[in-house]
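>> received
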Amino acid sequence: MLRVTEIYKSIQGESTFAGLPCAFVRLTGCPLRCAWCDTEYAFYEGVSMSIPEVLDRVERLGTCLVEITGGEPLAQKDCPALAQALLSAGWQVLVETSGALPIHVLPAAAIKIMDLKCPGSGECEKNDFSNLEHLTSRDELKFVIADRADYEWARDVVRERELWKKVAAVHFSPVLDRLAPHKLAEWILADGAPVRLQLQLHKLIWQPDRRGV
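>> returned
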């Protein structure tokens, strides 16, 4: 059984899949408390659902792409089984996860979008860098940037570990209302950083605090 906060269809707002219709399965619970978290309701809300019940709900949404997210979805032991069930049923599966919990438990065919925590999150010490060994050229990395210090930390991690060579894309995303996108763009351009500037598309389409999108 899984505890599920919400299941809904929207436009994928992040990653190289941005802009595509996507079904989202948001699992409840997270061991982290990032300073800029925008889904605190996923810490505690939710109802118990079996994997077949989740698949039935996703099937009715009529998309080819599905993302398992949270909270931190890997905080639930049945998350890998859900990912495998969705893959076996024919969906393309994304799993958005922090770098804090082991990702090797996920099926190889699931595309992992891992969020390494910058110092401004308050949870930088929770990063498990051994997870980088389990990323493939199909997976993606994300850094949420709150200020110049975060940027420099993320830039140096990317360079020192040559992360752009390991994954499909490395995304730098500014914290909404904390860092102007044009500033982050300027820093990336000035340094020639091998990363993508990422804006949260769903927050540009709809109100930033709207749920279910």
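>> The two ends are 25 Å apart (CA to CA).
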